[in-house]
Specification:
binds flavin-adenine dinucleotide; Uridine Diphospho-n-acetylenolpyruvylglucosamine Reductase, domain 2; five-stranded antiparallel beta sheet; seven-stranded antiparallel beta sheet; Uridine Diphospho-n-acetylenolpyruvylglucosamine Reductase, domain 3; Alpha-Beta Plaits; alpha+beta
């Protein structure tokens, strides 16, 4: 009997035959994530769906014994090929680990299993009358996946990325042992911070089975403002001054009007203004309407003195929803023509320079690189396109996009590094960006990462080939 046949037989004994997939047609959805190209896709030899932490431990021990590489899959919404299985590998899906373990409103804390989808998490937190600020764009992601990639989203400018809210994790290590890291406390100076080591480790160091999150009181009021500017540089350059004055918006997004047109076409809704070439979108939150009004007035003054052509406030909650939907549907509108969505993060003061560099690359290669992003935290999204955009609609295939893809990627990543930034601010390195990490972080840092990987998983069982190339 081959190794994989032995593995399948014993895995079925652990989780039950009905929770083990081996049919090719049913394995296909587990061969990819949301990365657009199929370059790194790979069929798993099987998919296993454990229901308990103990079953996960047994599966990991089995993988280690039979030397079968194992890749954890959350919601599969990743954009870096992170949950794509290794060669001759299997996938462990967390979809059945989806319970709320402990809802503790008095301490503003919730503990959930790693397979809880973000949509459900927001509902549960809402029932507690509390607020969980991190909001990556796809609510189909699981909390375990979001922690494993240190997901961000637009609200990071005020609230930080998901890392800031993780108080504790339960983890199954590569040898099958289980640990509880951190806990329901705010402070700890007790040894190395293993919780932080696991956050963002993309399934390469341990399997996250439970997550303990700190929550906040709900904001009393929310408001949305739009300010158009003649140029994107002018728009972005107002942001440091605003933050310096102590106004801390929940989100500050920049959008170029030619890009937002695509979402307008998709949703058949209109952005509040097309004056100038770019807009800043602000979301403010506060304890009360009065608090919000004071913030909005001061913000409007600063925007006008920074050259805003207008300052528009979304009056009704419906109009607010509409504007936010337009911003968040840009990805959807461009998805069909997108080859890769970059998520470079640079210091705030470097955003305008990086966006102008992107423009220069567009002109040099005569391609379109629609760009928008989080002006408050330096995270810039650029789409590498295989389809042309005209009047907000996707058109013909761009000739030669395949030849230019790598060149453009290298140039954008080099520009990010030169500006003191990173090649991934929120999506993770996965398989897609692995080769570029060393140029970004330096040989020493990547070597330390490989040593950590080796120390925790010497047999390379957990998600081999992702983030760094293991020994
Ligand atoms: C439309 C769209 C919008 C998006 N917007 C954002 C955004 O605004 N901000 C942002 O940060 N991201 C965004 N993303 C990317 C994606 O949603 C995030 O990376 C998300 O956090 C991935 O979660 P997942 O459960 O889908 O993980 P998967 O794709 O299933 O896995 C991602 C990685 O985490 C590992 N992993 C998953 N679960 C675990 C676990 N329990 N233990 C250990 N490792 C695990 C996997 O092995 C893999 O390496 C967007 C994606 C899409 C498609």
């Amino acid at each position: 009997m081959s190794n994989i046949d032995k593995w399948r037989k014993r895995a079925a004994q652990i989780v039950g035959q009905e929770n083990l997939i081996t049919e090719n047609s049913e394995l296909i959805p587990f061969s990819h994530d949301e990365y657009a190209l199929d370059t790194f896709n790979r069929m798993p030899l099987a998919v296993v769906k454990p229901a308990t932490e103990e079953e996960i431990q047994e599966i990991v021990r089995l993988c280690r014994e039979l030397k079968v590489p194992l890749t954890v899959r959350g919601g599969g919404t990743g954009l870096s090929g992170g949950c794509v299985p290794a060669e001759q590998g299997v996938v462990l899906s967390l979809e059945r680990l989806n319970s709320v373990v402990d809802a503790d409103p008095a301490n503003h804390i919730i503990t959930v299993q790693a397979g809880v989808a973000l949509k459900r998490l927001y509902e549960e937190v809402d029932k507690m009358g509390l607020y969980f600020p991190p909001h990556p764009g796809d609510e189909g992601a699981f909390i375990g996946g979001a922690v494993a990639t240190n997901a961000g989203g637009a609200r990071a400018v005020k609230y930080g990325t998901i890392r800031r809210f993780v108080l504790g994790l339960q983890v199954v290590w590569a040898d099958g042992r289980l640990s509880n890291l951190g806990g329901k406390f705010i402070k700890s100076s007790s040894g190395y911070n293993l919780t932080d080591l696991i956050i963002g480790s993309e399934g390469t160091l341990g399997i996250i089975t439970r997550v303990t999150l700190s929550l906040l009181p709900r904001p009393g009021a929310i408001s949305t403002l739009i300010a158009p500017f003649d140029s994107v540089r002018q728009a972005i350059e107002t942001v440091p001054d605003i933050l310096h004055r102590g106004i801390l918006p929940t989100a500050v997004e920049f959008v170029q009007h030619e890009v937002i047109s695509c979402a307008e076409q998709l949703l058949k809704k209109s952005w509040p203004t097309h004056d100038g070439s770019a807009s800043l979108l602000f979301i403010l939150d506060g304890r009360s309407e009065d608090d919000l009004l004071a913030q909005a007035e001061e913000l409007a003054e600063l925007l006008e003195s920074g050259g805003a052509l207008d300052v528009l406030i979304a009056e009704s909650p419906e109009r607010q929803e509409e504007i936010l939907a337009l911003r968040s549907m840009i990805y959807e509108a461009l998805r069909e023509g997108t080859v890769e969505l970059f998520d470079i993060c640079v210091p705030r003061s470097e955003i305008a320079g990086h966006v102008e560099f992107v423009k220069e690359v567009e002109e040099r290669y005569k391609i379109q690189l629609p760009t928008y992003g989080h002006a408050g935290d330096g995270n810039v999204h650029t789409h590498y396109m295989r389809k042309a955009i005209s009047n907000g609609l996707l058109g013909a295939e761009v000739t030669g996009w395949q030849q230019l893809h790598q060149q453009v990627r290298e140039e954008l990543f080099a520009d990010a590094a030169a500006r003191g930034g990173v090649i991934s601010g929120e999506h993770g390195i996965g398989r897609v960006k692995r080769e570029y990490l060393v140029n970004n972080l330096g040989a020493v840092n990547v070597e330390v990462m490989r040593l950590i990987k080796h120390a925790l998983d010497s047999e390379n069982i957990l998600n081999p080939g992702k983030v760094v190339q293991q020994y």
